[in-house]
Amino acid sequence: MSKLFAVAAEFDSPEALLEAIGKTRKAGYTKIETYTPFPIHGLREAIGFKKPILPWIVFGAGLTGMCGGFFLEYWVQVLNMPYNIGGKPLNSWPAFIPITFETTVLLASLTCVFGMLAFNGLPRHHHPIFNYPRFAEVMNDKFLLTIEAKDPKFDPTAIREFFAADLGSSEVHEVEDE
Amino acid sequence: MADHQELANSGQAPEVASLQTRGMILGGIGLALCAAGYMADSARFFEAYLVGYLYWLAISLGCLGWTMIHHLTDGNWGFPVRRVWESGARTIWLMALLFIPILLAGDHLFPWMAEGALEDHIIAGKAGYLNTTFFSIRALLYFVIWGGMALILTSTSYKQDSEGPEPLGVRLRLTSGPGLLIMAITVTFSATDWAMSIDPHWFSTIWGFLFAASDLLAAMAFTICIAKMLEHCPPLNKALTTDTFHDLGNLLMAFTMLWAYMSFSQFLIIWSGNTQEEAPWYLLRMDNGWIIISVILIVFHFMIPFTVLLTRKTKRAANVLVKVAIFMLMMRFIDLYWLTMPTLTAHGEHGAGFHPSWIDIAPWLGVGGLWLFFFSMQLRERPLTPLTDPRLQQALEGTGGHH
């Protein structure tokens, strides 16, 4: 038998899913994920979605772009190639601001796009959850809850039992990796 | 619909009535101060009057602009506060009346109107545009256009409350499209006439858009304050959500940035060109004590509000966002004061230096009180949100509210 990705359970309504998430977290499982046919209000909070760190990385990238852009201009105009333009002082900072602004936006937006892709694990051609036997049908009117194999408490037999008996899931399957 | 009557009378909320009373009291105190200021120093009074007048006119025009932008873009962000904008837009007629003192003091405020101005060859060259007759005709034209558009947009919107959103919505969108273009042109010309021609030698082509951006910024800050004030009044207690404040907060940030962008662009171009006609305007503001205000504007009109508004948390917490909005409304006064006052006082007896006076605040209070009184009167007469908007029904059925 090949390696497992997760154990998945089906639920019939968003309410049942939210309730099941609460019980699963209470039982001490941490690596849980859900798959639903439409966005569900409150799901984000229920699975304990952590505040993303990306905004701070983008902020840092913006600051780097800002300082980098300004000092690039300063280095060129004042240190590397001091040149009298229109009788203005070498450190004509107002003229440096447009470049500073552009590099701030450039670095921040590139970091934002590529950071978002990286944190989402994209680009990606295939996801193990597609190995769930009835995935296409389930995504019409069912709500999936999974506990992934990287969970420290991962034990397929115990989880199947937990899903079926304690949470009253209608259908439980193991999902293989690869 | 048992609660339909309640919704139709939602403008009667005690919060609106109390704003109207407060407007009346502020207006009374302000007008008394205006009278005292006029007795003490009539020249200074009219200079201050121009600043105070332009301040409140900006909110009227901004409200008119937001009404149009919302009709064209639609979206959840605007429908709960549409009546705030509509009521603000209707104050245009009050502002037309309050323009009269500026006309009366024209020869003091606008050097090109003064006796013997045509001896200056630059002013003489511009006399085809800058003459009292044409100036008055233009002013009349602006108010007819603004007031007319406000009337069409608001009366159609009020009619929707009984006749349903469509097909009246077509008329709203058809007015708003060309309306925004007309606004851009009239705001540019009026800003040139009333705020730039106080120094007839100087010119800046970005001036009009600087004012347009500032109008929208001031109106958005004002909208957030009123939204926060009315958050418990039905149906706004359901219609105003955390997401609404988040959206309005984002727009406040966007226009804070746009203001900075316009202000800095104007400076950069004039500073780079460094010509005799343009540079003195900034030299005046880099000296005589005005440099402090210049730095305050960079730090407190841009850097700090921008940084504070960057975080999601600020925009989603209405009680924090409203503080930023009040702060921005304060900064708008300082910016307008800085844009006009050094030029206005330069040719007077006090000179161009930074000498604030108690008279400076009097017209702002007086006009502001009347403005708020008139604004609340408009808000009271109608439901607090468009009644037949499908989004209202959705909000009333949902859990809604941001508490």
Q: What does this entry look like structurally?
A:
By secondary structure, chain A is an alpha+beta fold. Chain A has two domains: 100 residues, Alpha-Beta Plaits; 66 residues, no CATH class. In chain A, 50% of the residues lie in helices and 13% in strands. Chain A has six helices and four strands, in the order βαβααααβαβ. Chain A has a four-stranded antiparallel beta sheet with strand order 2-3-1-4, with helices on both faces. In chain A, helix 3 runs antiparallel to helix 4. The longest helix of chain A is centred in the middle third of the chain and has 27 residues. In chain A, 22% of the residues are buried. The mean pLDDT of chain A is 85. In chain B, 42% of the residues are buried. Chain B has one domain. Chain B has 403 residues and is mainly α. In chain B, 75% of the residues lie in helices and 0% in strands. The longest helix of chain B is centred in the N-terminal third of the chain and has 32 residues. Chain B is globular. At the A-B interface, helix 4 of A face helix 13 of B.
Major beta-sheet overview of chain B: none
Shape by Cα distribution of chain B:
globular
What is the total domain count of chain A? 2
State the end-to-end distance of chain A: 12 Å
How many DSSP helices of chain B?
Answer: 19
Mean pLDDT of chain B: 90
Number of strands of chain B: 0
Strand content of chain B: under 5%
Please tally the helical runs of chain A, counting DSSP H or I stretches of 4 or more residues. 6
Number of strands of chain A: 4
Mean pLDDT of chain A: 85
Characterize the quaternary organization of these chains: heterodimer
Order of helices and strands of chain B: HHHHHHHHHHHHHHHHHHH
Strand content of chain A: 5-15%
What's the alpha carbon Rg of chain B, rounded to whole Å? Answer: 21 Å
List the domain count of chain B as a whole number: 1
The rounded Rg of chain A comes to: 26 Å
Q: In sequence order, what are the helices and strands of chain A, one letter per element?
A: EHEHHHHEHE
Residue stretches of chain A low in confidence (pLDDT < 50, at least 5 long) are: none
What is the CATH T-level topology of the largest domain in chain A? Alpha-Beta Plaits
